[in-house]
Specification:
This protein is of the alpha+beta class. The protein has two helices and eleven strands; from the N terminus they run H-E-E-E-E-E-H-E-E-E-E-E-E. Helix content is 15%, strand content 43%. A five-stranded antiparallel β-sheet has the order 2-3-4-5-6, with helices on one face. Strands 1-10-9 form a three-stranded mixed β-sheet, with no helix packed on it. A three-stranded antiparallel β-sheet has the order 7-8-11, with no helix packed on it.
């Protein structure tokens, strides 16, 4: 019986050491770092035509973690409210499948069989802030639509969800083309 007690203590200590390895006491299935080496970033500001701007979307595809961090900024007003989410996919999916999902988020949904995330976590507004904002000029579209351009810097804090992921804090830079005149107004 004494040996079983020592074995249980040894197992408990091993689990405790593994769980507290990052200092937080939380256990993470995936460590997400958008500044990592195996991350591709896609910025989308144009939709349906190469001549019209829409909401700005950034997609950080963390290839080695089968995860995507998305950042979306609307373009109807200068009251910018970022929407940031972490999308976790099945670990057995290919990069191609996740890339198809990314494409479907901003196109005509070309990939009918694209996989869906197994988990989606939307970051709270307290976990990020716009830290820099500057006007970048004015542009006219081909069909008479007009846009004011803004350059934003968004700081995102570390975010942890026990058992699911730990997102390393990062700074995102985004350009938003705020529509000031729509072609329907002509």
């Amino acid at each position: 019986m004494k040996n079983n007690g020592k074995l249980m203590v040894a197992i408990f200590l091993s689990v405790a050491v593994l769980s507290f390895a990052d200092g937080s006491g939380m256990d993470f299935a995936r460590r997400l770092d958008v500044a990592g080496e195996n991350v591709s970033v896609q910025a989308v500001t144009r939709y349906y035509s190469v001549y019209r701007h829409g909401p700005t979307q950034l997609f950080y595809h963390l290839r080695d973690q089968n995860a995507v961090v998305t950042l979306r900024l609307g373009n109807q007003s200068t009251d910018f409210y970022p929407e940031i989410a972490v999308h976790i996919f099945d670990p057995d999916l290919t990069d191609e499948g996740i890339s198809e999902w990314i494409n479907n988020q901003h196109s005509d949904g070309l990939y009918f069989g694209a996989p869906e995330p197994t988990e989606v976590y939307t970051l709270s507004e307290q976990s990020y802030a716009i830290t820099s904002r500057s006007a970048g000029g004015h542009a006219a579209g081909t069909y008479g639509d007009e846009y004011d351009t803004y350059n934003l810097e968004i700081s995102v804090d570390d975010v942890s969800v026990d058992g699911l992921f730990h997102l390393e804090g990062f700074v995102a830079e985004a350009t938003v083309h705020v529509q000031t005149r729509d072609i329907d107004d002509l």
